[in-house]
Amino acid sequence: MQNKHWENCLSLIKSKISIQSYITWFKPIQAIEFKNNILTLQVPNKFFYEWIEEHYLDLLNEVIMKVLGKEGKIEYQISEDEKNNSSDNKLVEIKTKEKKKKSKFDNLNRKFNFKSFISGKCNSVAKAAGKRISKSPGDSPFNPLMIYGGVGLGKTHLLQSIGNKISNKSNLSVYYVTSEKFARQFVDALKENKLKEFTNFYSNIECLIIDDVQFFKGKVKTQEVFFHIFNQLNLNRKQIILAADKSPVELDGLTNRLISRFKSGLTVELEKPDYETRLDILNHKIKEEGINIEKEIVQFIALQVDTNIRELEGVLISLLAHSTITKKSIDLDLAKSVINKIVKDTKREIDIKYIQDVVSKYFQISIEEMKDKARKKEIVIARQVAMYFSKGFTNNSLKSIGFHFGGRDHSTVIHAVQSVNDMIDTDSIFRKSIKEINRRISIH
């Protein structure tokens, strides 16, 4: 019976579109089940049903209404071959009672939003640009927006936050895709003689988001077709958002004209999160997950894991898992153990930069102030303390230590060490401060 229903649908569809469109887009579809007024259709791939939803949704709803009645609906199922090559195996349904509503096919993860994207000095410009774009996509000077940065710094999170914001506040079509998937779709379109449909699909998207464009490297034909799609979207004032692991000028294996297009809008870097941002990210995640961790341990994690956000969250998840399995509270020893297993090079030698970082946070001044020629008492003391620990914890010469503090000479370092020793002998409060700073450096 299911084939009969679909045959009736096909008969109506065939009378309303060109024979070429019918052969290309409807003949390959197979009806596999009809149950509870739901006709399940198998389509060759995800790109296939996305195209149908974009271009033939109204026609399908009209046909479904006539053949299946008001309560009828269609579900698409991706073929088994395509499922084996894709992590996205969702069923997609079209309901006749919602026929006037435009279907979304944006591939966005709804958990990514601006609220959960913690900002700091490392990413505030990128986040501000993303918010600006989401208010008026295509109309801002930030088109295209190119976001670049290393692994695990939040590029995908930010891209999808922008896409979700646009998708939620407007009827614009938003499509997120990785460069690798784009390239795969392009190859499939070539094989199936559907290049025109492929380019039309992408040229009609109102906000195109492409992640990891560095993987276009060496794919000359893919770059060429993307170049033409880019130009068409740009000409029609459609929003383009891109992400890569390097700045446009550092991307190898991409054509000059494509690089030129990438640079024509706003290019902004996501940098490694500083200590304060890492702390904010941890506290946000702890609150979100309802985890109970002492403040000192959170600060320790933020200080130790300075690589990227992904490793920071990985440490937190591992701590929670260990604590749950062993039924033990999260303590400093457990934190150290987990960090050693997850983060590479955590046992690196204590260097002057690390000491400067610890001391500057303790005295609440910047490293730049510490290196400057300022003579304020609190800055001078902080500088001398940092020099004192640099001599005690590192193998750097006095001359080298002085160089790291604004180019000062070895005699300044000798004086600093002597001054700190004198204050330790005569000032009990200062002595406690030195003990605390020593503890913070030692847990490195």
Structure annotation, total helices: 20
> What is the helix content?
55-70%
Distance between the termini: 70 Å
Strand content: 5-15%
The assigned structural class equals alpha/beta
The H/E string reads HHEEHEHEHEHEHHEHEHEHHHHHHHHHH
Number of domains: 4
Q: What's the CATH first level of the largest domain? A: Alpha Beta
Q: Average pLDDT across residues?
A: 82
Strand adjacency order, main sheet: 6-7-8-5-9
Structure commentary:
- Residues 82-105 have low confidence and may be disordered.
- 33% of the residues are buried.
- The chain has helices at residues 2-14, 19-25, 46-68, 80-83, 124-135, 155-169, 179-191, 195-203, 220-235, 256-262, 275-289, 295-304, 309-326, 332-342, 352-363, 367-371, 377-393, 398-403, 410-426, 428-442, and strands at 30-35, 38-43, 73-78, 92-95, 145-148, 174-178, 207-211, 239-244, 266-269.
- Helix 3 links the parallel strand 2 and strand 3.
- It is α/β, with parallel strands linked by helices and 444 residues long.
- The chain has a five-stranded parallel sheet with strand order 6-7-8-5-9, sandwiched between helices. Strands 1-2-3-4 form a four-stranded mixed sheet.
- The longest helix has 23 residues, at 46-68.
- The chain folds into four domains: 2-98, DnaA, N-terminal domain (GMP Synthetase, Chain A, domain 3, 2-Layer Sandwich), CATH 3.30.300.180; 124-269, 3-Layer(aba) Sandwich (Rossmann fold), CATH 3.40.50.300; 275-342, Helicase, Ruva Protein, domain 3, CATH 1.10.8; 352-442, Orthogonal Bundle (Chromosomal Replication Initiator Protein Dnaa, Chain: A), CATH 1.10.1750.
- Helix 15 runs antiparallel to helix 17 (377-393) and helix 17 crosses helix 19 (410-426).
- Helices cover 55% and strands 10% of the residues.
